[in-house]
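Quick illustration for those who missed Monday's session on complexes.
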Amino acid sequence: MASASRAFSRALRTAAPTLRSTTTRSARLAALSQATQRKPWQRGFTSSSDEDGPDKYPGNPTGLLVGAATLFTGAVVYGLYTQKPELFGQEPKRRIFVPRFGDYQKVYDAIAKRLHEHDNYDDGSYGPVLLRLAWHASGTYDKLTNTGGSNGATMRFAPESDHGANAGLKAARDFLEPVKEAFPWITYSDLWILAGVCSIQEMQGPKIPYRAGRSDRDLSFCTPDGRLPDASKDGSHIRAIFGRMGFGDREMVALSGAHALGRCHTDRSGYHGPWTFSPTTLTNDYFKLLLDEKWAYKKWNGPKQFEDVKTKTLMMLPTDMELVKDKAFRKYTELYAKDNDAFFKDFSDAVVTLFELGVPFEQPEDLRYTFKSSFD
Ligand code: HEM
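Prediction with protoporphyrin IX containing FE bound:
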């Protein structure tokens, strides 16, 4: 490059005379006398070429052309060398792909498209089971040891995939495989959580702001069995499990509102049936039904669960019933039954916390991504 620019300046010097004006001597004299007749403030910025003549070098235009061509060739060669080093026998340049908001929105859109295309699953949507995958990936977090949580996607491996609580979640993981193939740069752990965000929003829930940056880890990071809640237990168990993650009563009740979605499967948890009449749309109906309906033990061979007396089509788990039995929990159940906005706000906040437990993010909290839903 340096030699190219030297050649160019040499060429300029030779070619400069071609810029010389063809002004005749008499014309220049006339111009000079006109200039001297003007007052100094009228002369303005008389250029030196007006007064001294355009230049004093003889030359020809070929030099300029040669210089320009040399400079151009140099620039092209330099550009090729830096952009395509392989043409010069060097290692090809590696581009580091840094995904941005738009890239994650594309992944969101792909999941949303699959959700709407595959509406023959369960009650018409994979949404609930995708949300359950994201929750079970995150809900293993232990704040004391800072282990577990969504960083790692360790549920890909046995023994975690075989934990009783995770029965049936293979359907969700398999559903996301084509998305992972289409966007290989995203980690499974970011993808599963993004799918949870997408399913809540696509099932008409609140916006769930999202941060990326989880990495996939090997099976040595699998958490021990027993970190997720057991539906047959009482309030002290709920507080022990969610307290271990760092949540308080209000957040526990808000998070439980996810049971407005989906259903229990006898071949997975042993329980049976949906909690609400609209299991693919997020509403505060779960809280309304808990308070407004009469619930009785279901008479069957399965584990202890409740059914609504009126239609016998809905169900509640023993842990769900704690949200009306326990006074401190009930306060929030009543609040959310009355006020869907309060539920959506608290649910969104608690889910954002849940999905981020134990993840060492670089993306700052105030720069989370909020994705457009397919119906925005
Ligand atoms: C005390 C706490 C909880 C207990 C004991 C519990 C238990 C269960 C059980 C037994 C099932 C049925 C699984 C099956 O048979 O397929 C289920 C489903 C589900 N849970 Fe929970 N859960 C709890 C909290 C949560 C939380 C915090 C969320 C999300 C924020 C959540 C989201 C879901 C969803 C969406 C389903 C439906 C899955 C489907 O339709 O396949 N649960 N839960």
